[in-house]
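Appendix B, example 12.
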Amino acid sequence: MPAHTVFSKGFFGDAALDYQARAMLGRSTHGASEPGEVLETLDRIHDHASWSQQWSVTATRLQEHAGRLGDGDDRAGAAAAYLRAASYWAAVVDGLAETDDETGLRAAFDQHRDCWDAFVGCSDGAHVRADTPYEGTVLPGYLLRPDASGARRPTMVLVNGSDGALTGLWNEAAAGALQRGLNAYIFDGPGQQSMLFRHSMPFRPDWEAVLTPVLDMLVARPDVDADRLVGYGVSQGGYWLPRSLCFEHRLIAAIADPGVVDVSSSWFEHLGKGMTGLLDRGDRAAFDRDMRLATLIPHLRRTLKFRARPYGAGTDWFDVFCAVRDYRLTPELAARIETPLMITDPQDEQFWPGQSQQLAGMLGDLAHRVEFTAAEGANFHCQPLGRARTDERVFDWLAHRLPFAP
């Protein structure tokens, strides 16, 4: 009898594609994907190029189906189909973000947001657009509510990672919050999704400058209970949210999924001591020369370009690596945190291994570190195939700090 090892050995030999496949399958937890649609699409994918091509086929087909449902009387069916279509278009964006196809990327992103907005529009007023004024512009956001009553409710503010889509946030915590009577607020901050693709606004390390105006906007709303605000930071948001908590103290509890102390560690892991020494000595010419040689390798060039883009330093690699070094949470900063923080700690963390433990050590009694393991189907970064289990642990922990609305 043949062994079945797809969970342990993966869907693809390429680690990046395999992780994306797991994440997409895991989004079925809250309806942002359908297992059959995912597996059928994965059957057609063979490499990075076909990833975007085949997800585009699936997304287009489902978007058309959602439109037909919307033209009829099944608004619930239309909402479900638009949500999945938005998720599949986000997969197209993920693939194209590592290419030079800027036109295709923008078109796919527009389709993603069109489907997301259609999903919101099918909520009968439960979900509403709620932008945040920010430095002469606005950060686009959505207040997702359990219903359209306008009742004053506890609210979870979700901080996304470096390249995550809104459909990811829906699955990672927003839907779970709604099921338990909380509002969920999701938005694009500097360097994230629409603020990057449409406005070319880069990341910033001092995320308190982002979170504070978000909270100012929310507490002014009659449907948000200003005394019952919680936060959730996913992926690189596991740095941004704790960093914000060093200065912003209005959240009564927060979750870092996972904990991130030094974003740059995943950049410097493969750089080598020689290259790091050039950076430390300020030898820009030698550093950029060696990076140009390294980026002759196609997959390395593709990954570095994709990861560097939101830092706003172009392709001057010396400037990029210097910028990334600013994304660190020092013990002196962490000592300012007053908010209880749950920290997820998945086995086989690919990007920031050991940093959940490090963050918990900085916070002492304020921290509650929770391990997730392969034995329970919940390993890897942000435990992509363990999102129901994550919900259960997160909201059980929150229930002791935040009385849920019935």
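The chain is about 50% helix and 15% strand. The chain has a mean pLDDT of 94.
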